[in-house]
Amino acid sequence: MDPELLSMVPRPVCAVLLLFPVTEKYETFRTEEEERIKAQGQNVRSSVYFMKQTINNACGTIGLIHAIANNRDKMNFESDSTLKKFLEDSLPMSPEERAKYLETSEAIRVTHESSAHEGQTEAPSIDEKVDLHFIALVNVGSHLYELDGRKPFPINHGQTSDDTFLEDAVEVCKKFMERDPEELRFNAIALSAA
User: Fold this and answer.
1) Contact of 176 with 10, CB cutoff 8 Å
2) Contact 116, 58 (CB under 8 A)
3) What is the DSSP letter of 133?
4) Is 59 a catalytic residue?
5) Out of 14, 66, 112, 133, which one is annotated catalytic?
6) pLDDT in tens, 102-129
7) pLDDT higher at 62 or 119
8) CA distances from residue 93 to 44, 45, 160, 189 in whole angstroms, order as listed
9) Of residues 1, 22, 2, the one with CA closest to residue 148
10) How far are the Cα atoms of 26, 54, 139 from residue 176, in angstroms, in the given order?
């Protein structure tokens, strides 16, 4: 998260995926944040693609969907892409309807399972208790949004730009780390231009 190391990340960055531990401190913060936003409100652009997570241990998949869906204009999909079809079909749906659609999507399930088995580590079973969680940070309409399918809505972290998005996203990541200073289980992945 050093500025010097961030300067080596290819630009533009279109999303950051953060993997972090789900601890008691985090759960307390999450509940307080939700109550505060419900009481005070926030502005969320209607163009933000957000979906709920209803499948256990699918946070990595949900994070990738959030990252890609909110950057469709920057992606080059193959014409027969399963993901492209999923995003096109689910675009007019509510976050809950998108979650249900994902649950019933045979094509996405097959793709997810084959990808999970190709990795270097064994994927957890759908019922296994996991205390790590993925979220996506994206820039939509010059605002930095945190997209977490476990939350009821996107979190608007304020203004950003294509030029400052990575540094702004890292500041959000640092807040997660500051809440649990004893924890070391954090990882951030930047999705950037090839």
Assistant:
1) no
2) no
3) E
4) yes
5) 133
6) 999 988 877 767 776 666 555 555 555 6
7) 62
8) 16, 15, 27, 28
9) 22
10) 8, 23, 18
0.70 exceeded by pTM: yes
Burial of 32 (0-12, 13-18, 19+ CB in 10 A): exposed
End-to-end CA distance of the chain: 21
Residue 133: active-site member:
yes
155 vs 146: CA distance, rounded Å? 5
**Interval 123-178: pLDDT, tens:** 555 555 669 999 999 999 999 999 999 999 999 999 999 999 999 999 999 999 99
Q: 3-class SS at 5?
A: helix
> Of residues 14, 59, 66, 112, which has the active-site annotation?
59
Amino acid 41 reads G
Render 141-185 in DSSP notation, one character per residue: TTEEEEE-TTSSS-EEEEE--TTTHHHHHHHHHHHHHHHSTT---
86-101 mean pLDDT: 97
Tokens of 15: 């999303």
